[in-house]
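Lest this sound abstract, we let one protein speak, letters for residues, whole numbers for local backbone shapes, and leave readers to judge:
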Amino acid sequence: MDLLKTLVEKGLRRELPTREEARAVLETSDDELLDVVAAAGKVRRHWFGRRVKLNYLVNLKSGLCPEDCSYCSQRLGSKAEILKYTWLKPEEAASAAAAGLKGGAKRVCLVASGRGPTDRDVERVSRTISAIKDEHADVEVCACLGLLSEGQADRLQAAGADAYNHNLNTSEETYKDICTTHTFEDRRETVRQAQTAGLSACSGLIAGMGESDEDLVDVVFSLRELDPDSVPVNFLIPFEGTPLADEWNLTPQRAMRILAMVRFVCPDAEVRLAGGREVHLRSLQPLALHVVNSIFLGDYLTSEGQAGQADLDMIADAGFEVEGAGTTTLPEHRTEELVSVRRRGAGTALPPNA
């Protein structure tokens, strides 16, 4: 297909596809799926080889969120049967993180429900970061605490955080249909604050919420404009007790096309296969490794993933290798840009940890 040849050539040059080209990937047939995966795989291998980065999620605080995000089991008014608890102590979080690191995880993602952290919460998370890094100096720590207020990203970076996650989730046009308690621009601004503070930005999407192809293209192009280092792709798990409980819109083939489109638009970013992969990709999960270069190991926020050993076996059986702690994930040009920002912010030379 001329389309796929063009997309590969652009991906190797970090050149942005046209919106029409991105949408055409989503419109390919199931008969063309392996061709699409093979083309995306060429771009993936050019920037990341056959390495797979493992990430491990630690849920610091669960449930009772005041926001009304329709997809979330922790939302205001949710009747989903999930575990609810207040903040883990730093030593508890460090113990939980150790389990993932033992399984081969390179990055620990510290997540807390809520609109955004108070200054006291930032201090609490800072102590947690210290507790984890005291035991595992080389681990990457990504915080995901909601909308940030002025100065909070700088404090997290000073405390040792390497990255900050805040997803755009869906297109700007349809965001108001998914959430009314904050805006798409609120989310975009938090990603910018993280980048300005020298944190590696992690921002992605949720597919399967009833969005159109145009919405998917919109959100991925918005992500490309922000240029985060990591782009997690989540597939909606329709929790009972949430407004999107009946939204079962994805097939494994559809999920694969979405991943490929993200890779073509964000060729040199860490594309992470995130929540819902077991539910929607099912037996195509190994095939997805030819497109993505990063996955979560084990469980998610309020849903279970497949066993960690099953993930490790899948990676090995598919001919890929787990990325070691001594390997830099990002291409050199991204690492250099990130370190440059940190130096400008801190006024001192900092080693790359991206």
Summary: The CA atoms of residues 23 and 214 lie 7 Å apart. Residues 119-135 form the longest helix (17 residues).
